[in-house]
Design brief:
With 427 residues, the chain is an alpha/beta fold. Helix content is 41%, strand content 17%. The protein is built from 13 helices and 13 strands. Strand 1, helix 1 and strand 2 form a beta-alpha-beta unit.
Amino acid sequence: MAPASSSPPPPPLPGAKRRIGVMTSGGDAPGMNGAVRAVVRMSIDQGCETYAIYEGYEGLVQGGNLIKKMDWDDVRGYLSEGGTLIGTARCKAFMERPGRLKAAKNMVTAGIDALVICGGDGSLTGADKFRKEWPGLLEELVEKKELTAEQKNTYKYLNIVGLVGSIDNDMSSTDATIGCYSSLTRICEAIDCIDATAESHQRAFVIEVMGRHCGWLALMAGVSTSADFIFIPEKPPSENWEAEMCSIIRRHRDMGKRKTIVIVAEGAHDLALKKVTPARVKDLLSNDLKLDTRITTLGHVQRGGRPCAYDRMLSTLQGVEAVHAVLQAKPDTPSPVICVIENKIVRKPLLKAVEDTLEVAKAIEAKDFARAMHLRDAEFAEYHNAYTVTTATGTKPEQRLPKDKVSASYSINSGRVSNIFSKCGLV
């Protein structure tokens, strides 16, 4: 193959300016387009150039017209669009060294010396591995006469910055991932619709939501829709969960509730790691409680649709910070991931965030559920406790007031005095 000097890449930009590649990878998430838009426009504002890499890592490997220089107007209208307008795809080729060799050559040919990647933990891990291999990849391309020594020296450093795009909110070190609140909104809207028909017919519905290793969507949907029972991977129900669930739901029904909603994360299991399926829950509700029960699997409707206001804001602020991180990076700067903690945009070590995320799955596999809960952010356990307390309806003795503590209170409403007695556990 002829040396690349016959069609040399563009010279580096002057000073600290960079050519920044931006790509989306893994499962799509609402808000990814906002991140792309922010990276493109912030780069232009800082005197840099931006290249959109279409179809994720596949575009990096294939090169050609899948790597496109972006101008200000190219991302007009991106902020409110769902999915990812520059595409995403699984790429087996990038998992092998020959594929990464092609990707490195395509980047050098385009003059790209930094990458901003919006994706999940797998996508970000692959990016950091690519960065570590970068000097060796360029050396090999020179040996094969696909690059010149001058090109290798010009592009000898590669900086990576990660943005977490995931509807599951499954990345450690951040309070929220791009797309998670849009997905939660979609789930709540769907359950609100189901509520109407459930109450009309006094039916029970078992709702399956996404979340193989993370129960955030199921938990927060349970809190937000006052579901009767939830199943999440990090905290399986008790050994006697069948009786416990039926007891809670029966109590709700005895108190006049006409509908029943049970939310099951797709990765839900019991204490023995045996999968808890919607079909199993349906059988219990139908056979033991004699409820007319239906299953609804929300599926990819959770991924689709326009991003909510929070995800538009988060993706924009994190995209801007990603460009700052690129411009401030030095050759030995560890790859950062852009996070949000207590409403502040911060940078965290990418590999540490990925390692902590993978530790949750390991803790679950080891049946160390207390550790799995601890590895989630502090609010996760608090939200779970709040959900449990507000749903148990006094079935646990420690949650019930002694009879001598139950008192009457009075309120004035439309000129009438109403005697309102405090009752523990009303739904």
